TrEMBL record:
<dbReference type="Pfam" id="PF00293">
    <property type="entry name" value="NUDIX"/>
</dbReference>
<dbReference type="InterPro" id="IPR021757">
    <property type="entry name" value="Ribosomal_mL46_N"/>
</dbReference>
<dbReference type="InterPro" id="IPR015797">
    <property type="entry name" value="NUDIX_hydrolase-like_dom_sf"/>
</dbReference>
<dbReference type="InterPro" id="IPR000086">
    <property type="entry name" value="NUDIX_hydrolase_dom"/>
</dbReference>
<keyword id="KW-0689">Ribosomal protein</keyword>
<keyword id="KW-0378">Hydrolase</keyword>
<keyword id="KW-0496">Mitochondrion</keyword>
<keyword id="KW-0687">Ribonucleoprotein</keyword>
<dbReference type="GO" id="GO:0003735">
    <property type="term" value="F:structural constituent of ribosome"/>
</dbReference>
<comment type="similarity">
    <text>Belongs to the mitochondrion-specific ribosomal protein mL46 family.</text>
</comment>
<protein>
    <recommendedName>
        <fullName>Large ribosomal subunit protein mL46</fullName>
    </recommendedName>
</protein>
<dbReference type="GO" id="GO:0005762">
    <property type="term" value="C:mitochondrial large ribosomal subunit"/>
</dbReference>
<dbReference type="InterPro" id="IPR033650">
    <property type="entry name" value="Ribosomal_mL46_NUDIX"/>
</dbReference>
<keyword id="KW-0809">Transit peptide</keyword>
<dbReference type="InterPro" id="IPR040008">
    <property type="entry name" value="Ribosomal_mL46"/>
</dbReference>
<dbReference type="GO" id="GO:0016787">
    <property type="term" value="F:hydrolase activity"/>
</dbReference>
<dbReference type="InterPro" id="IPR020084">
    <property type="entry name" value="NUDIX_hydrolase_CS"/>
</dbReference>
Length: 321
């Protein structure tokens, strides 16, 4: 079979004709229709049109899906934004040493005394044993040591006398205060070596104890809302310092079915805890806000007052010291 030349191949192609129609195809939920696609091969090689003329129609997509929900349908309930004041009083004293720490420091003191005590043969390198020079050297050390000890005693006694005579002189603070002895949980002077947190009690059976908290109103920030709720529930006598504008944590819970039925706008609440430090003042429970009691509690005492779900959310935010 002789090979075909390009001219012969062109004549063979020009003698053929093609006409095809694209059928309608169905897609799930849609119907796609396209105009026919036609191709024409020219019989005259010298004609101006190209070898293949292709015409593709415009596709039309018709959706048979369901229409959007009507405009009159109600929006699903959202979460209410609540700000809580995580108000704390820092420790007033250093924490007491643990048994391990006391043993460690006692061991270090014994080592220090053993290393600082001069050896008996230290002077033998410089003085002959029993010589006048050795006696003069050792007597000087003893005399200087007694004078330093006597000076310390004089200064200590002078300080004690100043404390007795001068009004307002500093005094050592005892770890156990009067509030600890009588069990007064309202006092800010209790548990001086621990961090205390302000907890409020509302007049209800469940979730009675919690931090001062309330919903955010208008364009308030979380810090502003937490401070406003704190003043509304504990009075204006408590001066606080917000530690920052970032929440220490959050707690999300759902409202009871009866509450949602009565107030369908919110299905639950998200509480953001804003850390604060008390500067001065004392809390005064507001009967108008339903506050019946308050307490300054340590981390372990807070766990005994709040619900398990509430404790699981706030436990990482509270200090162990």
């Amino acid at each position: 079979m002789a090979p075909r030349t390009p001219a012969a191949l062109g004549r063979a192609l020009s003698s053929a004709s093609c006409s095809c129609t694209q059928p309608t195809r169905s897609v799930t939920g849609t119907s796609l229709e396209a105009d026919s696609v036609s191709g024409h091969f020219s019989d005259n090689p010298a004609s101006a049109p190209p070898l293949i003329t292709l015409r593709v129609g415009t596709a039309r997509l018709q959706s048979t899906a369901a229409a959007a929900s009507p405009a009159g349908s109600s929006a699903p309930p959202s979460q209410r934004v609540v700000a809580a004041a995580l108000l704390s009083r820092p420790p007033l004293l250093l924490p007491a040493l643990s048994p391990f720490e006391r043993s460690y420091y006692a061991y270090q003191r014994r080592i220090h005394r053993a290393l600082s005590k001069p050896a008996e043969s230290a002077t033998s390198w410089f003085f002959k044993r029993g010589s006048a020079a050795e006696k003069a050297f050792t007597s000087f050390d003893q005399r200087v040591g007694k004078e330093e000890q006597k000076g310390d005693m004089v200064e200590r006694r002078a300080y004690e006398m100043a404390g007795e005579e001068v009004e307002g002189a500093p005094e050592l603070m005892h770890r156990e205060t009067e509030a600890d002895r009588v069990g007064d949980e309202h006092s800010l002077e209790r548990r001086a070596d621990r961090t205390l947190y302000l907890l409020l009690k509302k007049k209800r059976d469940q979730h009675a104890w919690q931090f001062p908290q309330g919903g955010v109103e208008g364009q308030e920030s979380l810090v502003q809302a937490a401070q406003r709720e704190l003043h509304e529930e504990t009075g204006p006598n408590v001066d606080v310092w917000p530690v920052g504008r970032v929440p220490a944590g959050a707690y999300e819970y759902a409202f009871p079915a009866e509450h949602v039925k009565k107030f369908p706008a919110h299905a639950g609440a998200t509480v953001f805890f804003m850390p604060m430090r008390v500067i001065r003042g004392q809390a005064v429970p507001s009967q108008k806000e339903g506050i019946v009691d308050f307490a300054w509690l340590t981390k372990e005492e807070v766990q005994k007052r709040v619900s398990p779900d509430y404790w699981q959310a706030i436990e990482p935010m509270l200090s162990d010291q």
